[in-house]
Design a protein that fits this description.
single chain; alpha+beta; 4 strands; four-stranded mixed beta sheet
Length: 109
């Protein structure tokens, strides 16, 4: 399966503070992967679209590994891919299917 999800985004000054990091953490934990989310910096002139900024790297456990603020910057992080196996071993969601409660059907087009 996947180890890293990379998402571009440009949340604004309302949705950014409320949801930007929260959604990254949720996707990382849901899928047990690293999430790298990149955003444009905020326009210093205050004109036009104002992005929240805050490019961020989240671990499979939902921890912030690295982040930026709203000004132009590069986010850098070293990703320990063994953490993915560790999280998947401790929380084995892929093995916790309850086929006694529901059925998964594969549909073909």
């Amino acid at each position: 399966g996947a180890s890293i999800f990379v998402y571009p985004g440009a949340f604004n000054m309302v949705t950014g503070p409320a949801h930007w990091q929260l959604l990254q953490q949720a996707r990382a934990v849901d899928n047990q992967v690293y999430v790298v989310a990149v955003s444009p910096a905020r326009n210093p002139s205050g004109e036009g679209y104002q992005a929240w900024g805050h490019s961020t790297v989240i671990s499979p456990w939902g921890e912030v590994v690295a982040t930026t603020e709203h000004e132009p910057a590069t986010v850098q992080a070293t990703l320990d891919l063994t953490k993915i196996d560790e999280v998947r071993a401790n929380v084995p969601v892929s093995f916790q299917k309850r086929t006694d409660l529901y059925r998964v059907e594969h549909l073909q087009k």
